[in-house]
Amino acid sequence: MIHTTPTGNSIPETTGRMIHWAGRYDLFTRLLLLGQEPALREATVAMAGINPGDNVLDVGCGTGSLTLAAKRRVGATGQVHGIDAAPEMIEVAKRKTAQARADVTFQVGLIERIPFPDNAFDVVLSSLMLHHLPDDLKQKGFAEICRVLRPGGRFFAVDFDPSSRSTMERVVTHLVGHGMVEHGIGELQPMLKNAGFMNTEAGKTSISLFGFVRGSKAE
Questions:
Q1: How far apart are CA 19 and CA 60, in angstroms?
Q2: What's the rounded Cα separation, in Å, for the pair 185 and 188?
Q3: Domains along the chain with CATH numbers
Q4: At residue 110, what are phi and psi to the nearest 5 degrees?
Q5: How many CB atoms lie within 10 A of CB 6?
Q6: Neighbours of 85 (CB within 10 A)
Q7: Are 40 and 210 a contacting pair, CB within 8 Å?
Q8: How confident is the model over 88-98, as pLDDT tens digits?
Q9: Among 50, 58, 147, 197, fewest CB within 10 Å belongs to which?
Q10: What is the rounded CA–CA span in Å between residue 130 and residue 138?
Q11: 169 or 216: whose pLDDT is higher?
Q12: In whole angstroms, what is the distance from residue 196 CA to residue 199 CA?
C-alpha cells in the first residue's frame, strides 16, 4: 500500500521506523558522532571493499552521505544507487548530490521490496538503518539483499554496537530507543546465514559505539 504526503510524495507502507525530519538529520548525525561522521563513512566504504567500477546499492541511504562516499570510491566507471523509505530523505539526498555534481541515483524504496532485478550489484551497503527494523523485517530485507547481489557480491552494514554501559551509550540508547542499541549488531549473523549469505563476520569499527556485520553471496 502507498500513502501520500500533503505535498504529493508517495510513502510506501512498511513496519520499519521511518524518519520524517530529514532537514535536521545531518545536524543530528554530526552531533551524535561528535564530528566523526566523515571518518565513519570513509571507513565504511573502505571496509566494504568497494572497488573502482563496482555497482553499489545503499539501502536506507538517508540523506545520501554514505552513498556519495561510495560514488567517490567507484569512480566514473561505477554506478551507485540509494534507496530510502522516507521521501523526505530522498529529496535531501538529491539536493546534496546536485550540489556535489555527482552521478548518483536516488529513489524511494524498501529493504523488504528492493526495486532492482536479481544479480544487479557488486556491493550492498547499510549504515545506521537496521536498528529501525523489527527482526522479521530484517530477515526479509537480508533475503532481498542477497537476491540483488551478484554471485560473489558483498553486503556490509554498520550500526550501533555498544559493548559497555558508558555515559555516551546511555545517551544514544535514549535518543535512538531501539533494540539494536541493546543487543548489538553481531546478533544479525544468524539472520544473514538464514538468508543465504556465506563468510559472515561481525566486529567493531574504529569508532567504539559502532560495529559492522558482513557476508557474501555464493559464487
A1: 11
A2: 6
A3: 2-217 (3.40.50.150)
A4: -110, 145
A5: 5
A6: 23
A7: yes
A8: 999 999 999 99
A9: 147
A10: 7
A11: 216
A12: 10
H runs (alpha helix) in the chain = 22-32, 37-47, 65-74, 87-100, 135-148, 167-176, 179-183, 189-194
Task: Give the chain's length.
Answer: 219
User: What residues contact residue 190 under an 8 Å CB cut-off, 6+ apart?
Assistant: none
Amino acid at 144: E
3-state DSSP assignment of residue 138: helix
* Continuous segment of H or E residues that includes residue 153: strand 149-160
Indicate whether 47 pLDDT > 90.
yes
- Asked if residues 150 and 84 have their Cβ atoms less than 8 Å apart, the reply is no
Q: Give the number of other Cβ atoms within 10 Å of residue 60's Cβ.
A: 26
Q: What is the dihedral of CA 63, 158, 31, 97, to 10 degrees?
A: -20
Among 197, 92, 189, 186, smallest CA distance to 153 is for 197
C-alpha cell recorded at residue 4:
501520500
Beta-sheet pairing, 10-12 with 2-4: antiparallel
Which residues sit opposite 172 in a β-bridge? none
Burial profile 26-35: b = 16 or more Cβ within 10 angstroms, e = fewer: beebeebbee
Of residues 161 and 71, the one with the higher pLDDT is 71
Q: How far apart are CA 201 and CA 192, in angstroms?
A: 10
DSSP secondary structure of 85-107: S-HHHHHHHHHHHHHHT---EEE
